[in-house]
Amino acid sequence: MDEFGLIEEFFTRPAHRPEVVLGIGDDAALLALAGAADTLAVTTDTLVEGVHFSRSAPAFDVGYKALAVNVSDLAAMGARPLAFFLNLALPAADAEWLAGFRDGLFALADAVGLDLIGGDTVRGPLAVTITALGTVAPGAALRRDGARPGDRVYVSGLLGEAALGFLLRGGRLSLPSQFQESVLARLDRPWPRIHEGQALVGIASAAIDISDGLVADLGHLLKASGVGARLNIRRLPLSDAYAAARPAVGYDPALVFGDDYELCFTVPPARVQALAGLASRLPCGVRDIGEIVAGAGLTLHDGEGVYTPSRAGYNHFDDPGSL
Ligand SMILES: [Mg+2]
């Protein structure tokens, strides 16, 4: 049973409360409180030592990334950051580790304007759970279920950088030295597209952040929207570092590895022009990689024929930690 089957079988239930606009199954839940001007977006993520980060990972990076993955989910909803809770399981109160963790955590919290408002600390194997809250205007959230046939499919920034960092660190890839620092930074300290997500409100018809790989995450969006997609892998936004690695690794790291924390989103043809007008608010760049089609499933092609990636994405209960 994978992560998604587990949730569906054991934890998906009808809502008791009309305030729950959107429950399990998107990047964040949406709560519309009576009388409130904004809708609340709520998301949570856990990082476990030995699964999501190694014992040797700098504490700064663990703190930064634990928050970044949550901010990325707020970004995917088009939400503004509001506040977060921190739950820490610690084997011991190691002051040096905690200082590094705190510095990484608040480096990002301060950069995006998130306040720490509570949490819990317990003794146990090292694990970090963060619950982040954001706000979005009523009805404005970017959900996974709004894509329609004819919409264009876009991704922000660059794909596959974190995968290259992962392969490089594992000794499974050699890269020219000028590229090494940037791909490791993309793996360890991804910058969530929080400003881009907000800029896409009113433009994008659906959005998701790429945490488990483009193929898997776009697959979730397609399923939620009841549509399919056709992507041209030659249009994937790849860096110079990736171009240097591509003879060895092909396209799969950009397609099926997670941890990029870019946004994948769809735009109706009538709003493509408006997206182009947003360029100054999307400094990371956005790339049209294909189109939404009627039916189900994702088809990848290279302009000549169908392309089949090696596997369908990173799934924590399936094959932890490997590409
Ligand atoms: Mg997500």
List keywords for this structure.
binds magnesium ion, 60s Ribosomal Protein L30, Chain: A, 6-stranded mixed sheet, Phosphoribosyl-aminoimidazole Synthetase, Chain A, domain 2, globular, alpha+beta, 10 helices
Strand-residue proportion = 15-25%
- Please give the largest β-sheet: 6 strands, mixed
Share of residues in helices: 25-40%
How do the helices and strands follow one another from N- to C-terminus? HEEEHEHEEEHHHEHEHHEHEE
- Name the structural class: alpha+beta
Q: How many DSSP E strands?
A: 12
Radius of gyration: 19 Å
Q: Write the CATH homologous superfamily of the largest domain.
A: PurM-like C-terminal domain
Tally the helices: what do you get? 10
Low-confidence stretches: 312-323
The total domain count is 2
Give a brief rundown of this model.
The protein has 323 residues and is α+β, with helices and mostly antiparallel strands. It has helices at residues 3-10, 59-76, 95-112, 161-169, 177-188, 194-199, 214-225, 240-249, 252-256, 272-276, and strands at 20-22, 29-31, 39-48, 80-90, 115-123, 127-136, 152-156, 206-209, 228-232, 263-267, 286-293, 297-301.
